[in-house]
Design brief:
This protein is of the alpha/beta class and 298 residues long. Helix content is 41%, strand content 19%. The strands form four sheets. It has a five-stranded mixed beta sheet. A two-stranded antiparallel sheet has the order 1-2. The chain has a two-stranded antiparallel ribbon with strand order 7-10.
């Protein structure tokens, strides 16, 4: 089996699309198709199956894919081992996280790691959809509050993400908001119209009070919800770490401090093969040593 053909197959198996595989490999789509045909001919068995526009692997394809994972992760690890002997060698890590957490917290706490490991170059990938980049090896590891069910993952707990309701003091005074009943007719700032964003708050209040949350204004970004609350557009609900400064300076207040919403769990997710790399292991160890308070959590 030709190593180039294997690399092409491995890339195609991860992205499940000939066009995207070609883009990843910087070749034409026909070159990808040719390499796959050559590989299937060399092993004398089909490796992929097409059902309309959907591409999947045959049983033989899945078996070869699992072997390719070991082969190419080992090649990557070997390259990094050899790189230690090159002059001023540096290795790279691609770290993924949700947008708000990455831009407001992670960026502010990564300098010490980079100062301690000058041989490591770190790139960031901020997105609300991290499972696909993780599966395709477009990132080496992710920090996320959404559970990931990919096979062969290692998970490391970081902290419990607390949520808080927020509003400007002037808005609360203007609308006379003291109880949950006062929310009837008040704009509820949410990432979605169905209030799935507010689920931790909703499950923490009596069912009879939940009907008060009905006048929903959708703002599909956390920072937009925060700024909307500051501007007096309504009452928001956000991770507490995103409004530490605003709460401390009384720009925003929690109108319902007696309600304790549920919490999400932030974890590190990394493929087991990737954890074998010293660079990734060092970053995981650094992040897990940080105290929750450094992430703005309790």
């Amino acid at each position: 089996m030709d190593l180039y053909h294997l690399k092409t197959f491995f890339t195609l198996a991860k992205v499940k699309n000939f066009t995207r595989a070609a883009e990843h490999l910087f070749v034409t789509q026909s070159a990808v198709s040719h390499a796959i045909k050559k590989l299937e001919a060399s092993v004398d068995t089909p490796l992929i199956v097409r059902q309309g526009k959907v591409l999947d692997l045959t049983p033989a394809g899945y078996a070869l894919y699992r072997s390719c994972e070991k082969i190419f992760y080992e090649i990557e690890r070997a390259d990094q081992e050899v790189s230690r002997y090159r002059h001023e060698a540096r290795v790279s890590i691609r770290l993924g996280s949700p947008v708000e957490f990455g831009t407001t917290i992670l960026i502010n706490h990564i300098r010490d790691f980079l100062d301690t490991h000058p041989d490591i170059h770190l790139d960031f990938y901020f997105s609300h959809h991290l499972e696909t980049p993780l599966a395709r090896d477009e990132v080496d590891l992710v920090v996320d509050c959404i559970p990931h069910a990919l096979p062969n993952l290692e998970t490391f707990h970081l902290f419990q993400e607390q949520y808080v309701t927020i509003a400007s003091p002037a808005f609360l005074k203007e609308h006379g908001i003291d109880t949950l009943e006062d929310l009837s007719g008040i704009n509820i700032l949410s990432n979605d119209k169905q209030l799935a964003w507010w689920r931790h708050f909703i499950t923490a209040i009596p069912e009879s009070k939940q009907a008060c949350l009905k006048q929903v204004v959708q703002i599909n970004h956390i920072r937009g919800i925060i700024n909307g609350a500051i501007a007096g557009l309504g009452i928001g609900f956000v991770p507490k770490y995103t409004v530490i400064r605003e709460l401390a300076e009384k720009i925003l207040v929690d109108p319902f401090p007696g309600i304790q919403p549920g919490a999400d769990h932030f974890n590190i997710f990394i493929k087991k093969e990737k954890l074998a790399f010293e660079k990734n292991k060092a970053l995981v160890e650094y992040l897990t040593r940080l105290k929750p308070s450094e992430f703005g959590a309790e």
